Every structure is written in C-alpha cells, then in structure tokens.
C-alpha cells in the first residue's frame, strides 16, 4: 500500500534541477538541520552519480536534500490533485458550479478573448 511513483529517474532529476533554482541550498538555516544516517544501495549511489545534474554530483548530502524536497512536493501535488478530483465528483459542488455558470453565462458574451 506504499507510494510507488511512476516517474523516470531522469524526470525526477530534471525536476530536482529546476527546484535548485527556486530553493537556494545555502540560504537554509544551519541550525534547522536534523542529522540522520542512512544506508544506500551501492547501485543506487552509482546510478545517481551518472544521472544527477552536474551541480549535485559531488555532494550526496545536497542531492538527498533536494530529492526529499522534490518527493514531498510531488506527494503534496498528488494529494491536491486527488482532493480536486474528489471535489469535481461531488454532486453538491457540481450543482453549485452549474448554478454559477448559468448566473455568469451572460458575462461570457463580453467580447473578451478566453485565452
């Protein structure tokens, strides 16, 4: 019943790479760190070295931090999408959206483009 992401490793690292630009590593407060020891399979570490963006290849700690941040962000996005799907299927919400659409329908004729 665990979470099994259906994302390729290269996609994951492209997301990590883009996150690096928005979450500067050096701006994190040093005193907000929690130290943990983990045992990683050698094959995983070797694959990480081959596919990681250049700026992460030589710093396994930074790579793990960025990977975990990406994992959390992906889980939050997935939870949000699930909540939106449940909401879209809720008959009461669908009814309310239909009422709103009919009330504001004339505004769609305002001459403005939809893009």
Structure overview:
The structure is a single chain. The protein has five helices and no strands. The protein is elongated. It has 115 residues and is mostly helical. The mean pLDDT is 80. Helix 1 crosses helix 4. The chain has one domain.
Sheet having the most strands: none
Order of helices and strands: HHHHH
Q: Can you count the helices? A: 5
Low-confidence stretches: none
Radius of gyration: 22 Å
What is the structural class? mainly alpha
Overall geometry comes to elongated
Question: How many DSSP E strands?
Answer: 0
Q: Estimate the helix proportion, in percent.
A: 55-70%
| Overall structural domain count | 1
Q: Approximately what portion of the residues adopt beta-strand conformation? A: under 5%
Task: Provide mean pLDDT, rounded.
Answer: 80
Distance between the termini: 41 Å
Provide keyphrases for this structure.
mainly alpha; 5 helices; elongated
In short:
The protein is mainly alpha-helical and 115 residues long. Helices cover 63% and strands 0% of the residues. The chain has one domain (9-26, 38-105).
Question: How are the SSEs placed, and which strands pair?
Answer:
Layout: H1 9-22, H2 42-51, H3 54-57, H4 60-89, H5 91-104
């Amino acid at each position: 019943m665990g979470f099994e992401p259906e994302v390729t490793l290269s996609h994951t690292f492209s997301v990590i790479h883009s996150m690096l630009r928005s979450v500067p590593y050096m701006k994190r407060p040093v005193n907000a760190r929690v130290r943990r020891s983990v045992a990683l399979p050698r094959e995983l570490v070797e694959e990480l070295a081959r596919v990681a963006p250049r700026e992460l290849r030589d710093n396994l700690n930074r790579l793990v931090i960025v990977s975990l941040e990406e994992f959390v962000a992906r889980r939050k996005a997935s939870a949000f999408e699930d909540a939106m799907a449940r909401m879209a299927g809720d008959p009461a919400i669908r009814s309310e959206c239909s009422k709103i659409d009919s009330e504001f329908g004339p505004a769609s004729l305002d001459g403005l483009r939809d893009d």
